[in-house]
Amino acid sequence: xxxxxxxxxxAGNWKMNMKPSDVKPFAEAVKAIVPRAKWCETVIxxxxxxxxxxxxxxxxxxxxxxxxxxxxxxxxxxxxxxAADMLVDLGVKYVIIGHSERRQYFGxxxxxxxxxxxxxxxxxxxxIVCVGESLExxxxxxxxxLVTLQVKTALADVSPKQVRKIVxxxxxxxxxxxxxxxxxxQANEVCRAIRTVIRGLYGARVARAITIQYGGSMNEKNAxxxxxxxxxxxxxxxxxxxxxxxxxxxxEAANQE
Length: 257
Ligand code: PEP
Description:
Elements: E1 8-13, H1 20-33, E2 40-46, H2 51-60, E3 64-67, H3 84-90, E4 94-97, H4 100-106, H5 110-123, E5 126-131, H6 135-139, H7 143-154, H8 160-163, E6 167-170, H9 184-202, H10 204-209, E7 211-215, H11 223-227, E8 234-237, H12 244-254
This protein binds phosphoenolpyruvate.
């Protein structure tokens, strides 16, 4: 982390795990343990149906709210889809884009990610853009090239002013939900490489200010070490964000001096 230049963001990704009625007890439990004064911004990205309850109860616990997905289209005949301005109308601040599960199970490509980034930015949502390599790609030694391509494609035609609204989450696919975490050094190395890509595209000032999270089995035990790395500015957290005590402990780790 480097709090002098950029915001630390701890974001939970609930995936398809919490019901609307689970939100209030979760929010109350987190509020009871986490101190109000925090160095980091805390976010929960929740399923669409949970968002009204999340906006009511999580905000009382000083937690911002994000969605887990959005449509690339602004409106129209897309049955079952949710547009960016619908999320904004509700009061949602962030949206996860390009999570590896969306890429793997729903056919999302780097191009889809770029379209969704533009849809989010145009409506005023802050994208959390996920990038990361598979185990095979890591073993082939192509992690940096791959992540560079993912970042460059996601940010195609994004202006220097717009890019300030973007958070990048480096999530090695082999570490998501597996209990295998990248070592702090491995995670920092790729986050640093992403910052170098941003520097090449937008200059040093933007690169210094962009929040780059690590995600992949971050938990209450490894968060401190990961967040101590200079280029890791927060976490995107799946499993551990479902348990108030674990999520609170990660927020505590981000509050380190
Ligand atoms: C994620 O889904 O973005 C994630 C990092 O999950 P987990 O923390 O469970 O590995």
